[in-house]
Design brief:
Number of strands: 19
Shape: elongated
Structural class: alpha+beta
Number of helices: 19
Radius of gyration: 27 Å
Helix content: 25-40%
Strand content: 15-25%
Largest sheet: 6 strands, mixed
Distance between the termini: 76 Å
């Protein structure tokens, strides 16, 4: 009798071990290959109809799964969708996952490696698998304020970030759209919505233009020229730079003009402070010609240009210097040094460049995710600031910061001033060409940080394809409002 009981126990334990092993294998080791199997359309349907975790801002769901009352038990719903479309992306039964819905899908579905034992427990108890919540670093008040600053008929992007941690405080772009249109269960409705949206000029359905789109950066690139000059040892804070009205080149009918809207024309020689205050072109073009293409490229890459691996967690399109293959001739290098020609940058890249100056030359990795929690609110991960690279020395960063303060105190960035607070900034105007009325269209840029002596926030704004007056109205004054809002919270 005892032998029979022992044998029964051995068989029971063996069966339990086999069952445990099978569940573990399916839930953990084989999950990726099973999900990737092209014949496994059940996986997409099951995921689409599952109870995915919410994406949160300030504790409120901006994306969540709600009971649908249909055969598909849950419907993915987006709250205030236009405000957050560029971040959340969408999850569609008919075209897949994008934005945070894609990049954080393992956490949102509960399929991450760290949730293995939760899945095993749910498999044994028969409970439906629940996803984890993803809380963002976004400040909802600043996000809304920044979004409202972008005119619907102009478009553009604004990024606000903490230079010490890399946390994104706000990231907005227009045009935007209602992500609920993409999450519909109805294929005909989805196709009709997609057909309309793809024709909207300037729209990006698969991520905010703040990190997926590139623009000519214009004079904000002069921060990189300045860092390269100081790092070379050939220039210092007392250097006097040539500042002619134009820079001519032998053998060709072209001359690079100085910036016409500041006070550049009043001096034929300039200090760094004066050249940055008035965004003079010819001094920085001369620096690039003196140092050479390789030196400017190397400095740009120290700030993150040409980096094809950056994620935050979605992939960031790589900003480019010089932006074309081969060696630049002198006119092309001169144009590139002032952020024109083929040089391209995303708003996030310019914010990161500025944040490195604000943070003593140390560039932090950008991040959008603050915490991840289980359905019972247990925190499983939190934002850990990460140093991405050393862009320049603390001494050079401090010197550039002082000159950027002077841009606001004494130069063309005065509209970004905040009473009682030192603001450091650089403006930019990248010329795009004449419109049908003969008016020059530009990418209007602002980038800066405050307080200059202990930076809490970087603000970067780009308004593409605007005239000079419109650009001036939509950049520095709005940056001042954002600085005030963040510092007063």
């Amino acid at each position: 009798m005892n032998q029979a009981i022992r044998n029964s126990w051995i068989v029971a334990i063996a069966l339990f071990a086999l069952l445990f092993g099978a569940v573990s294998y399916v839930q953990f080791f084989a999950v990726d290959s099973l999900n990737a199997n092209p014949q496994n359309d059940r996986q997409l349907v099951a995921s689409f109809c599952s109870n995915r975790g919410p994406i949160l801002v300030d504790g409120q769901a901006i994306a969540e799964s709600v009971p649908s009352g249909t055969d598909c038990k849950y419907q993915r719903t987006y709250n205030d969708p236009e405000l957050y479309a560029g971040l959340t992306g969408f999850f569609s039964k008919f075209s897949g996952q994008y934005g945070l819905e894609a990049q954080m899908r393992d956490e949102l579905t509960g399929n991450s490696d760290s949730a293995l034992f939760d899945r095993i427990a749910q498999a044994f108890t028969g409970e439906q698998q629940q996803g984890r919540s993803v809380e963002l670093t976004i400040d909802s008040t600043i996000q809304k304020m920044a979004y409202d600053m972008i005119p619907d008929d102009v478009g553009g992007s604004i990024v606000a970030m903490n230079p010490k941690t890399g946390a994104i405080i706000a990231m907005v772009s227009k045009p935007s759209y209602d992500t609920n249109l993409m999450a519909t269960h109805n294929k005909a409705d989805f196709d009709a919505s997609m057909a309309k949206l793809v024709d909207v000029p300037g729209i990006n359905l698969f991520g905010s233009p703040a990190y997926t789109k590139l623009y000519a950066p214009g004079s904000v690139f002069k921060i990189i020229d300045t860092a390269a000059a100081l790092e070379s040892g050939k220039y210092n804070k007392d250097s006097v730079l040539p500042n002619p009205a134009e820079l001519a080149f032998p053998g060709i009918n072209y001359a690079l003009p100085n910036y016409a809207n500041g006070q550049c024309y009043t001096k034929d020689k300039a200090t760094f402070a004066f050249a940055l205050e008035n965004s003079c072109n010819t001094p920085f073009a001369s620096i690039a010609l003196d140092l050479g293409q390789d030196a400017i490229t190397a400095q740009a890459e120290k700030f993150g240009f040409n980096d094809t691996s950056l994620k935050f967690p979605d992939r960031v399109v790589d900003s480019r210097f010089p932006g074309s293959d081969g060696t630049l001739d002198d006119p092309s290098l001169a144009q590139s040094a002032i952020g024109q020609k083929d040089v391209l940058a995303s708003p996030l890249q310019i914010a990161m460049m500025t944040a490195a100056i604000a943070n003593g030359g140390e560039q932090m990795a950008p991040n959008l995710v603050k915490t991840i929690r289980t359905p019972d609110l247990k925190t499983v991960s939190s934002l850990t600031p990460e140093v991405l690279r050393q862009s320049t020395t603390p001494e050079i960063a401090a010197q550039i910061k002082d000159w950027m303060v002077s841009v606001v105190d004494n130069g063309i960035g005065s509209a970004a001033a905040v009473p009682g607070v030192q603001v450091a900034a650089k403006t930019g105007t990248a010329e795009l060409g004449l419109n049908e009325s003969g008016v020059m269209m530009n990418n209007a840029w602002f980038t800066g940080f405050a307080p200059a002596n202990d930076p809490e926030v970087v603000v970067t704004i780009v308004m593409p394809k605007v005239d000079v007056a419109t650009g001036a109205q939509l950049t520095s004054p709005n940056a001042s409002k954002l600085f005030k809002a963040v510092l007063n919270k």
